Amino acid sequence: MRRFVIVGSKAKASGDFLLSDIPGTSGRLDVLLRGLRASLLISHGVRRDTVACLVLQGDPSRTVTVRVDGAAARYLRPDDRSLATIVKKALAVTPAASGFTELRAGISVAEDGLAAVAAELAGSTIYVLDERGEELRQRLPAATPADTTFVLGDHLGLDETTRTALERLGATTALRVGPQSLHTEDVIAIVHNELDRREAVT
Amino acid sequence: MRRFVIVGSKAKASGDFLLSDIPGTSGRLDVLLRGLRASLLISHGVRRDTVACLVLQGDPSRTVTVRVDGAAARYLRPDDRSLATIVKKALAVTPAASGFTELRAGISVAEDGLAAVAAELAGSTIYVLDERGEELRQRLPAATPADTTFVLGDHLGLDETTRTALERLGATTALRVGPQSLHTEDVIAIVHNELDRREAVT
What is the side-by-side strand order in the sheet with B2-8? Predict the structure, then answer.
């Protein structure tokens, strides 16, 4: 399986943003929503082998993670507003003290950020996506590990605290997807494409 | 320069869609807007070497093309809603009988669709992006032509009339970006990435 963990440094965990001004009122949740789309949606379908986690760490009081599992999720539409509505509903749920609480098929929410995701990463090969990393095409093993996780930031990138936490989880390799610094969703599209190509060959 | 021409088979040329329901009221303009973002925006910047043309052919009475030139455009934000607002304003302009009429720096509108774009394509190498095409990585020349145009469809792909018109313009090669059928914006991200890599080598 493929897992994309998108860390929103400013994204609010409260869900009290305006659908009519998502970028201005949510802490740039829009960046994460487009990353969610790129993670899960293909032409007329969903990537059933992929999970996307949005880590909302922009509130000082709490961090929340919304997880969308392509194997189970239904009725995902690609536009900012419908994805924002899903996240808004997820954030209205009070999650259990630990682990993910399911809102509807494939859509879950957890109190906490990377720590909540970490509980699911045993056995996963974890890469950080970063423009200062090594080249994806060269560095990814020819046979992609069965369970691979890619962690990336929002428009501000990953901060040092998050990087340190990721290293502790075993994410010691950073990958870049090319010479340009790109939007989160474009990075995800390029990673998927590289994995799709490798899987088509094997 | 790089040019992306995104043909919206159902996208309305009237601009009377609702910002609160872009997918449902515009003929899926949202697909084109995300393609516009992928064409022009990179992390904290605009691709100054790129032009995006949105061909809105979903109205029976008229076809309109909105062109955004990365060399001149300012204040482009990546979310669906702000890009929709730009297109709405462009569609409120009555274009001159021929050629593009500028609404504001870098943003122009023309009556007509591919015929309006065609006037600018002399000397450009034109590719159609299509999942049945040849492999991008193998087929693109090592040194990308100085002026390259990529034409792609919306969620419904390109119809036969459009394909025939494109062949007449010299677009005889179709390229695919990998084994999966992807969203328009992901295809654009992957094409840009391939060009970025080639330019970085030369």
Answer: B101-104, B107-111, B64-69, B50-56, B2-8, B148-153, B125-135, B173-176
